[in-house]
Specification:
Layout: E1 3-10, H1 17-26, E2 31-32, E3 44-50, E4 53-63, E5 69-76, H2 80-97, E6 100-102, E7 108-109, H3 111-119, E8 132-142, E9 147-152, E10 168-170, E11 184-190, E12 194-200
Antiparallel strand pairs: 1-5, 1-6, 2-3, 3-4, 4-5, 6-7, 8-9, 8-11, 9-10, 11-12
Helix pairs in contact: 1-2, 2-3
Length: 209
């Protein structure tokens, strides 16, 4: 299975890889290229990483129908992450240059229609870090001076030895809005020994939803 997506861009417009990565981030995609990668110049295989998943595509160029413009073809033959990378690289190129994207069916997208098209491309999920665990907790109340007493939710398998680590936390590490009793948040624990972040919980669905 292969996917071919083309970006219609100005021929003489220089575009930095960093600009494509920044544009992709605005679209919700975490994209990275090899150091020194020239997006438009050159041909051949381009490795990249999309949302933590290895990806890549073949790159080639042709003259566009409009003088002064060119088609940058991005073709993937491997993973779904590669297919999605083609879409977001081509889309970022087009949005940065005022160009268009042409999909494998020959349909063209630009401006808001292009943004809408990219929103239909499902991004691959980042591979979980095996050294990182997330444990949901709720606040019981103050514990001593400068600490919060926590009540643990479900503890992931094999993580019971971290119970003492997550039963209380320095108050300053918790956002003010999450310090009240019964507030819920997620502790991110690295290497079973260090709390590295506090994240808000996903909202609970209303009953009957």
């Amino acid at each position: 299975m292969s996917t071919l997506v083309s970006a219609v861009v100005p021929r003489d417009r220089a575009i930095a890889a960093a600009d494509i990565q920044a544009q992709a981030r605005e679209l919700g995609a975490d994209l990275s290229f090899p150091e020194g990668f020239d997006v438009i110049g050159g041909l051949g295989w381009v490795p990249c990483v999309l949302n933590g998943q290895p990806a890549g595509f073949e790159r080639s160029c042709d003259d566009a129908e409009t003088p002064g413009w060119q088609l940058v073809h991005l073709e993937s033959r491997a993973s779904y992450a590669s297919h999605a990378a083609c879409a977001f690289v081509a889309g970022s190129l087009a949005l940065l240059t005022g160009g268009q994207v042409r999909d494998e069916d020959g349909q063209t997208f630009s401006g808001p229609a292009l943004t809408h098209w990219l929103a239909t491309v499902e991004l691959p999920e980042a591979a979980p870090d095996p050294a990182t665990l997330r444990i949901e907790v709720s606040v019981v109340g103050p514990r001593g001076q400068g600490f919060l007493q926590l009540k643990l939710g479900r503890i992931p398998p094999g993580a019971h030895l971290m119970r003492n680590l997550v039963q209380s936390i320095d108050t300053d590490r918790v956002p003010a809005a999450l310090r009240a009793p019964n507030s819920r948040f997620v502790l991110v624990i690295r290497d079973a020994s260090e709390i590295v972040a506090v994240e808000p919980c996903a909202p609970r669905r209303a009953q009957g939803a």
